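so my prof wants the structure for this chain in the tokens format not the other one, which i didnt know existed until like an hour ago. anyway here's the sequence
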Amino acid sequence: MDLLLESAITTAHAGYAAPGQMAGRSLEEWNAAYEKVERYFCAMRLRNKVVLAQLALTVLHRAQQRAPYEADLSATELAVEEMDHLITDWFAEILGQSATGADQMLSTRGRLALLLADMPGKWQDQFLALAPRPPEFVAAMRDAYFRAGPDFQLARMTPRPLDLGPVATLVNISRAPYFKLGLGVIWLGFTVGLIALFIHTHRL
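here's what i got, hopefully its the right format
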């Protein structure tokens, strides 16, 4: 991680080809990309500021290497892609899985394994770290990974009609023709009564 951080900082300073530019993109673009990556890592419950800065710079370093050759992608898009590649490759290595043809399930189960192994509480400095890694961390991750699958499945929410209870019954009744007729008669009687009361009071 230290080597990656040093390389990222060196590349960042070398990328200032023009004032306000880095790797052919504006500093505002890279700042937005940095914030996006940092928020993602925070969502994974990483709280150590030093670890967050190291990981974000590592991702931006990889994105900046691609930036001059992929002008159609924004700095944020490049950073998000590199972050996903970095995390997926790391999961494949630490979990003993093949990164070739890795699908979304590897990434999903890997993230769940991080929580089951209590990475945020015990191993924040090991997240995305290079080998060698503490054997107990590797063992905890692999055990959590197998506990997360293969029966683990992504939940799918199927829309269901709302059960309104008595309200739905009242609505259905209000749609009945006899109900509407009776309601009309009541209102007519109420209106006639008001008119009769008005005439009576004005004759006195």
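also thought this was worth mentioning. The two ends are 98 Å apart (CA to CA).
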